[in-house]
Amino acid sequence: MMIHSKPSSGAHVGANKSVSRIMWEVMLALSPATVFGLWCFGWPALFLFIITVASAVLFEAFCIRLKGRAAKPVLMDGSAVLTGWLLAMTLPPWAPWWIGVVGSGLAIILGKQVYGGLGQNLFNPAMLARVALLISFPIEMTTWANVSPLFFSASPGFAESWHITFSGLDFSGLDKPDAYTGATTLGYIKTEFSQNHVLTDILNDYSSVLNFIGWTRGSLGETSTLLLALGGVWLIRQKIIQWQIPVALLLTVTILASVFHLLDSEHYVSPFLHLNSGAMMCVAFFIATDYVTSPNTATGQLVFGAGCGLLIFVIRTWGAYPEGAGFAVLLMNSATPLIDHYIRPRIYGRDRKGKPLEIPKL
Amino acid sequence: MLGFFSKPRIRGGVHAEEHKMLTASQAIVNNFPLPKKLYIPLQQHVGKPAEPLIRVGDEVLKGQLLAYSQGMISAPVHAPSSGIILDVNDYPAPHPSALPIRMIVLETDGKDEWINAPGIDDPFRLSPEDISLRVGAAGIVGLGGATFPTAVKLNMGRENRIDTLIINGAECEPYLSCDDRQMQERSEQIIDGVRLMLHGMEADHAVVAIEDNKPQAYLAMQAAAKPYPQIKVIQIPTRYPMGWDRQLIRYVTGREVPVGCRSSEVGVTIHNVGTAYATHKAIRQGRPLVSRVITVSGGAVGRPMNVEVPLGTLISELFDFCQVNAEQTARIVMGGPMMGDSLPHTGVPTVKATSGILALTAAELKSTDEQPCIRCASCVSVCPAGLRPLDMANNIRVNQLDAAVDIGLKDCISCGCCSYICPSNIPLVQYFKYASGEVAARQQAQHKSEQTKRLMDARNARLERIAQQQREEEQARIAAKLERERLKAEQEATV
Amino acid sequence: MYVFYAIVSLTGLGLLLGLLLGIAGKYLKVESSPIVDELESMLPGSQCGQCGFPGCRPAAEALAEGKAPATICPPGGSMLAEQIAALLGLDLDLSEVKEPELLVARVSEATCTGCTRCFKVCPTDAIVGAPKQIHAVVADACIGCKKCVDVCPTECLQMHPIEVTLRNWRWNKPTVTSNALC
User: Are residues C87 and C72 in the same domain?
Assistant: First the structure.
């Protein structure tokens, strides 16, 4: 019997996890929180989501065509869809359509393709785009819609929603425009602190349960602590992501917040509020764990996670941006090559410096 | 002793789909029809090839010495059956290239008649050196696949005064079950072989380590080892590559073998269960190693089985016996699916190293649709040696071999975990094998260029010396001529 | 006024440092650059002349002066080109480099007359023999320079590619498909 093939070495069998399968599983883990967010914020959120994902795919296809290659097989790996999806999750749900398009363009072109494409980028594309948008378009990026679920009588209808998304922050089509927007919890606390109020006054009508479920103002898909955490835990169970980054990140924030909260409970918010608000869960499970931009070793991932947690706490507490998780992740992304350079696994039979071990005395 | 109680962390590794039940549930098949021709390579072991001492046309009996071992690390080769020597020539080797190597071709006469070689009734009265000698003379090599001559290992164990003999019954490769079946069916002979090895190495105790996915083998071996308190049978977690000798040594004894050292230097020697069985046969019955149990399995095999075949049987005959479907076969693999290499055709013989032959279908094979690396670092977390395969492969891809060596290329054991897990289907192990070969080739080229320079310098020096000599002779001639003329002139003057 | 100070001080600083560099360049100049020796030791040293220079030393000098590309040496192949490029910090275009076909000379015993011409020209003494005796090539010492082929009167010396055996067989480098190029 002849087998006409080149000599091939092991492993001849493989684990059943391809790149596209990993990407689709991440999206599956994201979908409960996304669906909930889309429902909470109604038609405008859905429009924005579709526009962001679609333009991410189009930009990716455009870049690949520029390289003179067939776009379809590359698009099938799902990475562009995931980037668009993650970006959309972090946008204010009623942001105008061009925020989604510009964001996707930044994420795919500046965040990914200029580095050489999948696997080559230094920064998380979605976070890069979000931070660039936040700095460039501060009004659009900090106008937060109230929860106004689909098919509720008080929520904007399809036509009004079309107007919200495609006319850009012009809510005049609605009855009482101001009633539809407000600040996120963290943003609100920041403003109140600047007016010398203390936490017990500020958080009079704060409901941790509603925040936990996600019934609150915030980014399109980041409001539901519960659903995001469930998706993240499922990803860990599926062995798609390692536990090191989320655990180190959340633990660091919890410890820091607890210490400061115990020292001065009127000026430092409690660890529960930290964990329960803003992009914390999304960042811990879905953004910081990005393969390409996080360290390779388990120890390195612990350091990376702890660094992210520390920076998130510092930026939230003392920085100008109450929703500062994106900055924290980007800063740690830039430290990833350094972490990988210094934290390496010990090779069997060698010490940490790479010298052979001594023969043990028996 | 701490190692026995606090189990050391197992580094890396994968849980591969086992596929062992295809063959593990049935007894070893013993009625393989004797092939008409056997192709016996002179090198079936690590070290120097054996030197033939028969001639074409000689009649030989089963177990007769065909080629003797040459040098310190080598092993002899015996006739797997009785018959006539047809040829000693180059034939395709069981190797991914199937390039030719020297083989003895034996035409069997069908009688399968053993040579008269008495066994030893009370081998424990033999000296340890005598055990080594007999094991060496029987041509026994490590049957787990490493094929290091067993006698050399016994001697090293004795010289290094090892305290623990580990018997490797892990059989962590998917599909393979030949060790599992042998432990179930031949447990007493294996335990006897272990006792003989202990005697041969003057070691105190042995640990038989069996993965916990083989409960029946464990029970059988435990029962067989009961009368001998110096032999302990333990279960180890099922996790590829648990059977990597160094992983097993660390798990069982808690010791780590330094890079560049042999395991005997830390007081441990490791042998395969099949080797222990071969040792028993060689000492008790005087039978050299002329056959072995081979797992024939894979999706394209009609009758997957463990079968005892004479060494030198062509794989094509083995496949006929096991009803392999040629059309479904996408790849023939020699060994297990993790570490084994592909074979281009079945016209190559089975050898002492052949633990399994797989005929895999396209559906069983890992996809070859390569995608860009997404730096998921799965390869880093599964590497049992603590390497960073993704960085090594990136370096090799752009031909920075020195950089790859710096970050551990030479510590790669080619276990295949990284290739197995890679979601982008990057052939990592093949990169490392290519790079290792290329590094060796470069060293040879370097060596050759130094040698060339030396030869040219020597030649230039010689030519220079010859030219110098000629000049001196010329000068001497001129001087002599002048002298002659001067003398002549003087003579004329006096006259 | 501040602008004036700034311009004057920075200009002065620039001039001073430039002067220092100039002096250093003059006094610390290395006469015979050691890089030539290093390059020569990397080249095969067979003085084959395929590069267009009369020998390996002139080729090394040309490389050091930047007058020759890193791919100058055909027998060295891509491996040598890489080493040279790494040493000199050059950009490397390997697309034009052909891997040298490894050849060894072999004597056809039927036509060898034992004329001894070949082993007189062999630069590595790889040909053994005596007058009126059939010559033989020591394959391990042969560098494939073809000088013997040129002088052989009976064309009994021919170049043959080195045979691939199990001893020198190597795994191929995996080819990268276009999909995997990100």
Answer: yes
Residue of A nearest to C170 (CA): A7
Per-residue pLDDT, C173? 84
* CATH code at position C153: 3.30.70.20
Tell me the DSSP string of B26-89: SPPB--PPPPSEEEEES--SSSBPPEE---TT-EE-BT-EEEE--SSSB--EE-SSSEEEEEEE
For B288-343, the pLDDT digits (tens) are 999 999 999 999 999 999 999 999 999 999 999 999 999 999 999 999 999 999 99
Structure tokens given for C126 = 């790889």
Domain encompassing residue A32: 20-182
Does the residue A190 lie in any domain? no
B338 Cβ neighbours under 8 A, 6+ residues apart:
A10, A11, A12, A13, B16, B173, B174, B240, B241, B415, B416, B417, B420
CB contact under 8 A, A9 and B429: yes
Task: Indicate if the pLDDT at residue C94 is higher than 70.
Answer: no
Q: Which two tokens stand for residue C51?
A: 């590069």
Q: What is the DSSP letter of A171?
A: -
Q: Are residues C82 and C121 in the same domain?
A: no
**In this structure, is residue C122 part of a structural domain?**
yes
Output the pLDDT for position B3. 43
C14 is a domain residue: no
Segment 133-152 of chain B within 8 Å of chain A by CB: none
Q: Do C172 and A7 touch (CB under 8 A)?
A: yes
B42 touching chain A per CB within 8 A: no
Inter-chain contact B369–C173, Cβ cutoff 8 Å?
no
Look at residue C20 and tell me if it is in a domain. no
Give the Cα-Cα-Cα angle A20, A22, A27 (nearest 5 degrees).
Answer: 95
Residue A343 located in a structural domain:
no
Task: Give the mean pLDDT of chain B.
Answer: 91
Mean pLDDT, all residues of chain A: 87
Among residues C76, C96, C116, which one ends one of the domains?
A: C96
In a domain, A216, yes or no: no
Considering its fold, how many domains does chain C have in total? Answer: 2
Find the domain containing C153 and state its range.
103-161
- The Cα A336–Cα A345 span in angstroms is 15
Distance from CA of B161 to the nearest CA of A (A): 11
* pLDDT value for C88: 81
pLDDT tens-digit profile of B433-450?
A: 999 998 998 888 888 878
Chain A residue numbers touching B163 (CB-CB < 8 A): 362
In a domain, A51, yes or no: yes
Q: Please name each of the domains of chain B with its CATH number.
A: 1-21+133-287 (3.40.50.11540), 294-361 (3.10.20.600), 366-495 (no CATH)
Residue C102 in contact with partner chain B when CB distance is under 8 A = no
Q: For residues B365 and B66, give the distance between their C-alpha atoms in angstroms, rounded to a whole number.
A: 39
Q: With a cut of 60, say whether residue B1 has pLDDT above it.
A: no
Does position A57 have pLDDT exceeding 80, yes or no? yes
Domain count, chain A: 1
| Contact with chain B for residue C140, Cβ under 8 A | yes
CB contact under 8 A, A18 and B256: no
Question: Is there a domain that residue C18 lies in?
Answer: no
Do C86 and C113 reside in the same domain of the chain? no
Strand-pair partners of A144: A182
Q: How many angstroms separate the Cα of B18 from the Cα of each of A269, B172, B239, B268?
A: 52, 9, 10, 29
Of B316, B342, B372, the CB nearest to A5: B342
Phi, psi of B210 (to 5 degrees): -125, 130
Hey, are the CB atoms on A74 and C172 less than 8 Å from each other? no
Domain stop point among C58, C78, C96: C96
B212 DSSP 8-state letter? T
Is there a contact between B324 and B317 (Cβ–Cβ < 8 Å)?
A: no
Residues C81, C55 within the same domain? yes
Q: How far is CA B426 from the centre of its chain?
A: 26
Touching subunits of C (3+ CB pairs, under 8 Å) are A, B
